[in-house]
Amino acid sequence: MRIFTVTPSPRRPVRRGGARHAIGAVLACGVLLTAATACGQGAERKVAGGAPGAASARPGQAVGIRLPGVGERMSRQLPPDTGQAVVVYGEGPDSPDSLAVLYEKQGSAWYRTQSWPAHNGRLGWTTDHRIDDEHSPVGVFTLTDAGGTLTDPGSRLRYWYDDNAYAAMLNPEPAHAHDFDYVIAIDYNRLKGAPPFDWNRPDGVDKGGGIWLHMDHGDGTSACVTVPEPGMKTLLRTLDPARHPVVVMGDRERLRS
Question: What is the pTM of this model?
Answer without folding.
Answer: 0.81
